[in-house]
């Protein structure tokens, strides 16, 4: 895909969202069913069923997906797609590229071993490795705009208000 094709695809959406800002607000949903036989949750991904379970560091078998891994995978996917979209929009040729996310967890917090240990990621590192002949100022703009427009990255760096509830069925 080239920048002109991308602009043509996005132009009517941008026009619609300028004319009707509420049309741009979409609610995404994720749903999972608890597994009755294992400590696992079957998550509907829209393409397949993903079974998430405990990480081996918390007693899991390693056969199910770890939700922490899934969070990092979502970050990599969003950052990679955003980088490609921005590169396309700016006519920056990328010969190749990779995105890596690493996160540090202290499982003492998750297991309740140490109440002072945090539950969740302590640090996350997102790295882009690209091969391009573009000048450095274009690469700098690519990086800046990728950071700015990556939904998952922005959600993690500027967390939204989250409400939780439990209901009986």
Which features would summarize this protein structure in a list?
single chain, 169 residues, alpha+beta, two-stranded antiparallel ribbon, globular
How would you describe this protein?
The longest helix is centred in the middle third of the chain and has 23 residues, at 67-89. This protein has 169 residues and is of the alpha+beta class. The protein is built from 5 helices and 6 strands. Strand 2 and strand 3 (49-53) form a beta hairpin. It has a 4-stranded mixed β-sheet with strand order 1-2-3-4. It has a two-stranded antiparallel ribbon with strand order 5-6. It is 38% helix and 22% strand.
The residue-averaged pLDDT reads 93
Total strands: the figure is 6
- Give the neighbour order of strands across the main sheet: 1-2-3-4
Shape: globular
Number of helices: 5
Q: What characterizes the major β-sheet? A: 4 strands, mixed
Q: Over the alpha carbons, how many angstroms does the gyration radius reach?
A: 20 Å
Q: How would you classify the helix and strand content by structural class?
A: alpha+beta
Low-confidence stretches: none
Specify the helix fraction band: 25-40%
Share of residues in strands: 15-25%
Question: Which secondary structure elements does this structure contain, and how are they paired or packed?
Answer:
Elements: H1 3-19, E1 31-34, E2 40-44, E3 49-53, E4 65-66, H2 67-89, E5 96-105, H3 107-110, E6 121-131, H4 136-149, H5 151-157
Parallel strand pairs: 3-4
Antiparallel strand pairs: 1-2, 2-3, 5-6
């Amino acid at each position: 895909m080239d920048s002109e094709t991308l602009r043509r695809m996005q132009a009517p959406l941008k026009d619609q969202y300028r004319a009707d800002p509420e049309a741009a607000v979409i609610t995404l949903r994720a749903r999972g069913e608890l597994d009755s036989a294992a400590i696992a949750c079957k998550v509907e991904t829209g393409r397949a069923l993903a079974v998430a379970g405990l990480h081996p560091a918390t007693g899991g078998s390693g056969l199910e997906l770890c939700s922490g891994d899934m969070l990092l995978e979502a970050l990599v996917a969003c950052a990679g797609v955003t980088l490609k979209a921005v590169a396309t929009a700016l006519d920056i040729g990328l010969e190749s590229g990779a995105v890596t996310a690493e996160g540090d967890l202290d499982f003492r917090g998750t297991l309740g071993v140490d109440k002072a240990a945090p539950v969740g990621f302590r640090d996350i590192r997102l790295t882009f490795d690209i091969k391009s002949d573009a000048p450095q100022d274009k690469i700098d703009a690519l990086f800046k705009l990728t950071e700015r427009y990556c939904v998952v990255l922005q959600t993690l760096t500027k967390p939204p208000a989250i409400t939780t509830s439990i209901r009986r069925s």
